[in-house]
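Person: Show me a sequence?

Helper:
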Amino acid sequence: MKTRFIGLWKRMGAQGNLDSEFDKLRDEYFETHRFYHNIDHIRNCLVDFDSAKHLANTSDLVELAIWYHDVVYDTRAKDNEEKSAQLLYAACLTAKLPEELAKRAAVLVLATKHNLTPGNIDSKLLVDVDLAILGKPTREFDEYEKNIRKEYSWVSEDDFRKGRSGILKIFLQRAENNTLYLTDFFKDKYGTQARINLQKSIEALR
């Protein structure tokens, strides 16, 4: 993965110690409290992105956002995406990339809060990649749900069931309205299975 990461930065014209930047990023994703939001999640996002990168206007920028979108992850916090975006913005400036590019990269990361409908294809693609797990085969989705529970191990069972069910119901409503995925590519690929997975998980949380 380091080779891919450094190659991406070099294509974008980055300068500086890219090996060190990768090592810092990797160390964040290897934090011990991460069970889903770790380097495997990034690897899987990149696989899904590779299958759909032809849809992007600026594919390198979307990939850069994928690498950094969960670099800050604290289940007790509400500003992980903001902090991740700030970190990416700073990394771009350190690498001597244009400030406008740094701002665009940061805005992409903020799209993964999933609280607003993105208005451009790059943001839509990033959001779809991030939510691809919801439409994966049953075994993979079930493992994802188990790992999310581990990341919230500090939350009581009753509170977790209530909170998680609320989040999944929002996603299910979007799935039923065919707006969970924002590109036709991911709607066709994962939309049907996502509805099945979400309905099953919500039922299990009751």
